[in-house]
Amino acid sequence: MSDTTAAESSPDIQRIIESARRLGMEIDEAATVQWLAAIASAGENGDVVVDMETGTFGHRVSMLDFSPRDLDRFRRIGAIVEVTGPEGVAESALALSGSAAQSKIQSFPGDCDYFQRLNIKAATREEACQIMADLMRQKALGMRQGDTYQFLEAKLGSYPFDGTHGRWEVRKGSPISWTADEIEAGEIRLTQPDGAVATLRWDDVALDPGWCKLDWVVTDPLRKQLSNASNVIDVTWESPEGEIVPLDGYLDAYFQEVYLDSDAVPVFAKVAKFVTDDALDEYVDRLEEEVRKYLTRHLNYGKAAKRMYNVFRLSGRHLDAAFVRELFDEPATILYQVWSLIVTLENATQPGSSIPIDAVRAQADSLVLEVVKALDGDEEAAIVQALLHLRQTLEGQQTGEARSAEVDAAQAQVVNLINTFYRDKLVAMPAIKEYIDRMQAVQAETQAP
What we know:
The protein is of the alpha+beta class. The protein folds into two domains: 1-45 and 280-449, no CATH class; 48-275, no CATH class. Helices cover 46% and strands 19% of the residues. It has helices spanning 10-22, 29-41, 60-63, 71-81, 125-142, 180-185, 202-205, 265-272, 279-295, 301-314, 318-328, 337-348, 357-374, 378-393, 405-426, 430-447, and strands spanning 48-51, 56-59, 90-96, 112-121, 145-146, 149-158, 163-165, 168-170, 175-178, 187-191, 197-201, 212-220, 225-238, 244-246, 258-259. Strands 1, 2, 3, 4, 5, 6, 9, 12, 13, 14 and 15 form an eleven-stranded mixed β-sheet that branches. It has a two-stranded antiparallel ribbon with strand order 7-8. The chain has a two-stranded antiparallel ribbon with strand order 10-11. α9 runs antiparallel to α10 and α13 (357-374) packs antiparallel against α14. The longest helix is centred in the last third of the chain and has 22 residues, at 405-426. The radius of gyration is 22 Å and the shape is globular.
């Protein structure tokens, strides 16, 4: 039976409901049928839609999952992270991505993830790269620190060889990470394996920019918590002849973004028409690589689940997507906020960090209270106990001080429990268990001697 008729298939819906009930989840059958019908017909009614009431737009499938309830907040943070430039030279279309773009189903989204199309008009590619580098520098240094934000790092260029950057070992071809001080200096020092020190310059690496990204931590006065805010920038060069060329060699697809300003429709439309015909297949392939990573090398079943949802809804596995969609709407998904807490803790314990450890403690206190209110049962009680233990270990932790072994052990305990929690939910659906098993088997085969 095809998924286009799945919305009318009671037995298929019943299998989802039965799997959910075994986990204590409640599924609204009527709403699930309605969503299945909407997603099955999405491809028949055009790719992109504009919501005139909110001024947002995006791919029809993405817009099915977006709620405008936090739109004002996302636009405020967007003003911090968006790279802008002179009129007639730099054009921008800023979007939400990740869980923030799926706020209708994700009651407790993770970080504030943004995606920006930055189109630069210039006589040559090299000039466009220089303009991009200047604009990213201006944004990072102009928004270095304020009452509600702290700049963390930028990604620009790729390491030309293996080496050591600061305290970190880095690999050839991986994105170069820049602190604010390094951006201001316009260079970093990279120690090669033989001990020689090389200087990499901001303007030079911009000629082959690779993955461009800016990261902040922002405060939310209403929620009284910290959030990580990132902006992945897809930079394109518009030649005098009107050709659009991605500076990193790949023009990203638009299947997960919700754009924040309908005034950006002309910029989006101009750039999007250069997206290749097989962009959807390429996008799903890239998502599956991330799924495989989070099911194997960097085990994180919560992040894997979020990417599986996008794989399923875009590749026709709508019934599996419907199950994961309901999982995200459960009170238990507040546990995904643990990952945000962990990332914030890691940023606060980097040397030179200005993120106050008191804010991390307050975030942990708030999360413990919310988890207690949302969850019950023995499994959930174990998670609450582990979170309380992590919170207690933070009493001896200081801002900018490397985490103690006790904090690391408590963090690992929380992560392991939440991984188990999400895994148990996912494998309750036989088709999803088969998918996970296959992904893990493929990875094991590639690593076999």
